[in-house]
Design a protein that fits this description.
Layout: E1 6-11, E2 28-33, H1 40-57, E3 64-71, H2 72-75, E4 90-97, H3 101-112, E5 117-118, E6 121-126
Parallel strand pairs: 1-6
Antiparallel strand pairs: 1-2, 2-4, 3-4, 5-6
């Protein structure tokens, strides 16, 4: 998405299907701002705004949310100095723990109807892996 007036937010959809979660495990996914022109700090603010909005406006029974920074340079340090180093990212993620696919679908549909804005830019919600 190249529109400077839009903020693309992807809510990842690639995790265990409902009914097929291994015993002792739980469903988990995340959202992130998918734009390279927005600063890391700004992405964190956008996701915090989104998390607070979700927390206030929609009930996601049993789901836990938190925001964290994922740093691929720490996770995949062996790639530093290789031809693949360019793929290493540092980004904020809004994590959803214990969320079902049905809840994610409801959440995405709900958020898409809200006309969310952040600093005069439209937040565009979608879900893909």
């Amino acid at each position: 998405m190249k529109d400077k007036n839009k903020i693309p937010v992807n809510i990842w959809d690639d995790y265990w299907e409902d009914g097929y979660v291994p015993e002792g495990e739980f469903q988990e996914t995340f959202a992130y701002v998918e734009d390279y022109d927005i600063s890391l700090e700004e992405k964190g603010k956008i996701l915090l705004y989104l998390m607070n909005f979700i927390d206030e406006k929609i009930e996601l029974q049993g789901t836990e949310m938190n925001i964290f920074i994922e740093d691929d340079r720490k996770k995949y340090s062996k790639l530093i100095g290789t031809e693949d180093e360019f793929m290493l990212k540092k980004r904020y993620k809004l994590q959803f723990k214990k969320i079902t696919h049905k809840q994610r679908e409801i959440l995405v549909t709900f958020l898409q109807k809200q006309n969310l804005m952040f600093e005069n830019k439209e937040i565009v919600i979608y879900s893909e892996s």
